[in-house]
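Posting for a labmate who doesn't have an account.
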Amino acid sequence: MSQTGNSEAGVIDNRVFVLILQHPHEKREPLATAPAVVATLRHAKLVTGLSWPNLARALGRDAEPRRWAALYLGSVRPAALADRRELMLLGRDGQPIADPAPILRGLDGIVLIDGTWSQAKTLWWRNPWLLKLHRLVLNPPRPARLGKLRREPRREALSTLEAAALALRHLETGPTAAEALLAALGDIIAAARPTPGQPVSG
């Protein structure tokens, strides 16, 4: 398993830690956005593999699961997605919690899974400790910005970088971390677009 942290000066000093579990095959994807997350945020870590025994092992230090949340990959009831909130905290019944603020304010970190939809589901089921974390669901107001360059199976299936930005926009006290991540996403999109006269691969 490979691990990538961020210790450089000049990156954004986010409060909520972002831990990314990356499927090994995603590491070879040209449009993978997870490395840009750890390059932008001071408190972020990218680990590559298929399974870890618990949150602490993946994170590399002790952690309280009850103070962490994972972006949920399971089925979500249509009534939940009809909720207008961009970030929802689900209860065990699959319905959004009416007053999530106390739990969200107390989160130390979030876990994102990086890979194609099938790869992400593989990681989810191979790491049952994720079920001990709070479950967050994103309800993005618009389709993924990478959608024209990398097809996603569902509208809410954002790139890892865009998902981190949307989550932190609601979990951080200021917009700085989210804005920096979206700027990094813009750079990735700009670099991936062919210049005039350049043939498009695919």
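Reply:
Got it, the structure tokens are right above this. Residues 171 and 192 are 30 Å apart (CA to CA).
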